[in-house]
Amino acid sequence: MMMKINTLVLSFWMVTMIFGCSRQEKVMDGRIGCNSTCEVHHVQMDTYIVPIDRSVVIINPTTPYDLLKAKLFPHTTKHFESGTCLSDGTDKAQIYVCSQCETANNKWLNEMAKETIDRSNNKKDK
Length: 126
Ligand SMILES: [Zn+2]
Prior knowledge:
Layout: H1 2-20, E1 27-29, E2 46-53, H2 64-72, E3 80-81, E4 92-97, H3 99-125
């Protein structure tokens, strides 16, 4: 009886391993054609695997933030903006991310948030 239970458990484990591991994530290489050195900070960038955002189509940066980002901290994106439909099930991409762009972007966002709060408080005071 014990032998049969062990065989059953072993069979269940083998089926789980075979089918559970068979779905491999499809990851596209979004680094193709990109330089691995940040053109703003002149440092080697790290590779990240990030989700693909199909809802974003960037043709040209249009908002002031997009324009600023492209100029001062271009490699901060934590998702890959595909702008196209990838019907093969690819849901992640490898991209380059610059740690100094991340720092500059976070610093800028914090300053803008602080300025907005200060402006809001000044309006209340008047
Ligand atoms: Zn950078």
